[in-house]
């Protein structure tokens, strides 16, 4: 994912989700994490945004609150 403009102070980088598929499907991974973030953290661009992961095989997310960043890392790392 491309980083989005945001002001969130907390960021996290996690590996692509393991979706029990033989081939890594980035599109399904994005949909899975987006749905999880919307349900567990809150609205996109209000509570979280895509950020730079600084790693080619990781997803980066910026968060408004540190506890949401921690929840994300614990769930997806």
Explain what the structure shows:
There is one protein chain. With 77 residues, this protein is an alpha+beta fold. The chain has one domain (10-76). It is 34% helix and 21% strand. It contains two helices and three strands, in the order E-H-E-E-H. The chain has helices at 26-40, 66-76, and strands at residues 10-15, 48-51, 58-63. Strands 1-3-2 form a three-stranded antiparallel beta sheet, with helices on one face. A hairpin with a 6-residue loop joins strand 2 (48-51) and strand 3 (58-63).
Descriptive tags:
77 residues, alpha+beta, three-stranded antiparallel beta sheet, 2 helices, 3 strands
- What's the main sheet like? 3 strands, antiparallel
- The overall average pLDDT, rounded, is 89
In whole angstroms, how far apart are the ends?
A: 17 Å
Poorly predicted residue ranges: none
What is the count of distinct domains? 1
Strand proportion, as a percent range, falls in: 15-25%
Tally of extended strands? 3
Helix-strand sequence: EHEEH
Shape, please? globular
How many helix segments? 2
Determine Rg (CA atoms, Å): 12 Å
Produce a short descriptive summary.
The protein has 77 residues and is of the alpha+beta class. The protein has helices at 26-40, 66-76; strands at residues 10-15, 48-51, 58-63.
Helix-strand blueprint:
Layout: E1 10-15, H1 26-40, E2 48-51, E3 58-63, H2 66-76
Antiparallel strand pairs: 1-3, 2-3
């Amino acid at each position: 994912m491309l980083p989005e403009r945001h002001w969130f102070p907390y960021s996290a980088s996690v590996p692509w989700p393991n979706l029990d598929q033989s081939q890594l499907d980035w599109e399904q991974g994005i949909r899975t994490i987006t749905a999880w973030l919307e349900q567990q953290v809150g609205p996109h661009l209000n509570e979280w945004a895509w950020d730079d992961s600084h790693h080619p095989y990781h997803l980066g997310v910026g968060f408004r609150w540190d506890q949401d960043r921690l929840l994300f890392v614990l769930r997806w790392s």
